[in-house]
Design brief:
Layout: H1 5-9, E1 15-26, E2 29-40, E3 44-48, H2 55-62, E4 72-80, E5 83-84, H3 92-98, E6 99-102, H4 113-123, H5 130-140, H6 144-147, H7 160-173, E7 178-182, H8 190-203, E8 208-212, H9 216-222, E9 225-233, E10 239-248, H10 249-254, H11 259-265
Helix pairs in contact: 4-5, 4-7, 5-7, 7-8
């Protein structure tokens, strides 16, 4: 039984994404089943749960990067600001411009710091005021003071934490509406992780953020809402993920409605 407390108590908040009975298949195998979940504007929502429970699979639905995986199929309903995200009239390229993604491993392009941030702008024909937008994006990513004198050096020359903030600057340069983060701190040291977490809190003033994390302490520190996913084994040993519960982060960690959530956040399994 899924808890929909967040959906019922937050009707006064604007829903950026609404998923209803959303399932994802890879070929003939179901990876995620029957997810009903709202993502609220201007909030940070964390997805937690054991490996293989569909957290990243769901995250990729929001900017249609599952489309790039052969055999992937999304069933059910998923709306973005009220419009069906998988309608045939929707251009996935436009979707990915509005809904940016930051990945687990920092992935700067083999270009200069400046060109990394300007890349999306140029690709989308946004060539006005490049210097201004690059500086503004690097400032928003809390990186400008560290790189302002070496914008012509390679982005790959930066430290891991700096590279991840560069990727965040690259994502926000094209003025997205939403930023998706797939375990953005898993490859970083504790100090870099703290910088990224502080940055997320600042960015939510302008962006809606959805983060997948295996770090429950991170979810408790940064997220306004937390969704707990679990997985069960099917015949043949394959696993299918499903949503167990979603609510305010405080409630999920202090007084969850479902025993499975209680067991997970208390460390009894997972």
């Amino acid at each position: 039984m899924q808890s929909q407390s967040m959906n019922n108590t937050a009707v006064d908040l604007r829903r950026i994404f609404e998923a209803q009975n959303l399932s994802v298949y890879y070929g003939n195998s179901i990876a995620l089943r029957d997810v009903t979940l709202n993502i609220l504007e201007g909030k940070i929502t964390a997805f937690i749960g054991p490996s293989g429970c569909g957290k990243s699979t769901l995250l990729r639905c929001y900017n249609r990067t599952n489309d790039l995986i052969p055999g992937a199929e999304v069933k059910g309903h998923l709306t973005y600001r009220g419009k069906q995200l998988y309608d045939k009239t929707v251009d996935p390229v436009v979707v990915r411009r509005k809904i940016g993604m930051v990945f687990q491993q920092p992935n700067p392009f083999p270009k200069t710091i400046y060109d990394n941030v300007a890349y999306g702008l140029r690709v989308n024909g946004m060539k006005q005021n490049l210097d201004e937008v690059v500086e503004k994006s690097l400032r928003k990513a809390a990186l400008w003071d560290e790189v302002k004198d070496k914008l012509k050096t390679l982005g790959t020359s930066l430290s891991g934490g700096q590279q991840q903030r560069l990727c965040i600057a690259r994502a926000i340069a094209v003025q997205p509406d939403v930023i998706l983060m797939d375990e953005p701190c898993s490859a970083l040291d504790p100090i870099s992780t703290m910088r990224i977490e502080e940055l997320m809190k600042e960015l939510k003033q302008e962006y809606t953020i959805v983060i997948v994390t295996h770090n429950m302490q991170q979810a408790s520190r940064v997220a306004d809402y937390t969704a707990f996913f679990n997985a069960e084994a099917l015949d043949g040993g394959k696993r299918v993920g499903y949503l167990v519960e979603v609510d305010t982060t405080d409630k999920v960690f202090s007084n969850p409605a479902d025993q499975r959530t209680r067991d997970y956040v208390s460390g009894r399994f997972g």
